[in-house]
Amino acid sequence: MEDFVPDSAAFEWDRGNQAKNLKHGLTLEDIESVFWQPYVFAGRIADPAHSEWRGLILGQSAQGRRVALIFTRRGERVRVISCRSMRPAERRLYEITTAQE
Q1: pLDDT in tens, 66-89
Q2: Where are the alpha helices (DSSP H) in 25-72?
Q3: Against a cut of 0.85, is the pTM above it?
Q4: 29-79 pLDDT, tens per residue?
Q5: CA dihedral defined by 65, 36, 13, 8, rounded to 10 degrees?
Q6: Count of domains observed in the chain
Q7: CA–CA separation, 71 and 56 (whole Å)
Q8: Is 44 among the domain residues?
Q9: Measured between alpha carbons, how far is residue 16 from residues 8, 13, 19, 20, 46 in Å?
Q10: What is the dihedral angle through the alpha carbons of 33, 61, 13, 82, rounded to the nearest 10 degrees?
């Protein structure tokens, strides 16, 4: 598994995104914990409306909640764009991939 987050990473948060994530029942601590658990890099998000690189990881929070997390890197910082519960297809991919590790 490739590490997308350095051990000393700092997180960068947008207040508007914080509110959206809380709406999904996820605290900042829940979201950050996903990066320290085994996760699956599901790919790059190709969106012509955004010029910066965005990635999707599928993982599990320290509380055991399985989530899909979209993020970008800004130097040594990780900026979480959104985090939500996995969709059924994402859950299957996560389960198959993590069972093989």
Answers
A1: 999 999 888 888 898 889 999 999
A2: 28-34
A3: no
A4: 889 999 888 888 888 887 777 788 899 999 999 889 999 999 988 888 889
A5: 170
A6: 1
A7: 7
A8: yes
A9: 25, 9, 5, 7, 22
A10: 150
- For residue 1, name the pLDDT band (cuts at 50, 70, 90): very low
- Does residue 3 lie in a domain region? no
d(CA 46, CA 65): 26
> Residue 31 has which token pair?
């979201």
35 located within any domain: yes
Residue 59 DSSP label? E
Each residue's pLDDT tens digit, 90-100: 999 999 998 88
Amino acid (one-letter) located at 53 = W
- Tokens for 72, please give them: 């970008």
